[in-house]
Design brief:
Number of helices: 6
Helix content: 25-40%
Number of strands: 4
Oligomer: single chain
Mean pLDDT: 86
Structural class: alpha/beta
CATH superfamily: P-loop containing nucleotide triphosphate hydrolases
Shape: globular
Order of helices and strands: HHHEHEHEHE
Length: 132
């Protein structure tokens, strides 16, 4: 965690008590929200509960790992069109796919304004800097 704190600064890595709703208000369809995981802290249920509150018909959840880049990419492309949300869990297990993320969310791709991408990841020095 120290390497990320050194890279970004303590204001970006300090634990936060912001609600998922507060975070959602600050987010956009082209910028994923990244949660750094620590023992006992997983925002997935809070995200799913808030999705229900926002009447999202789908909040696709995919746990990254070997071979999961294909379903993750398909879920995102579908949600780009519908404005639904995608949660990619354990992104530290899919760093090659994370490196593609900037291209997938690029300006040339049509993305519904309500789309949100939520990422969970253990702190890793080799996490793509463009997503931080």
């Amino acid at each position: 965690m120290e390497f990320i704190r050194d890279l970004l600064g303590p204001e970006y890595t300090a634990p936060t008590n912001d609600s998922i709703e507060d975070i959602w208000h600050e987010s956009t369809s082209r910028e994923p929200v990244l949660f750094l995981l620590s023992a006992g802290a997983d925002p997935t249920q809070s995200i799913e509960d808030f999705a229900k509150k926002k009447k999202k018909s789908s909040c696709e959840r995919i746990s990254m790992g070997e071979g999961m880049d294909v379903p993750a990419r398909e879920a995102m492309k579908s949600a780009f069109l519908t404005g639904n949300w995608v949660i990619l869990q354990n992104c530290h297990l899919g760093l090659e796919f994370m490196a593609e993320m900037e291209t997938l969310l690029g300006k040339g791709i049509e993305i519904e304004e309500d789309f949100r991408l939520w990422l969970t990841c253990e702190p890793r020095a080799d996490f793509p800097i463009g997503l931080l």
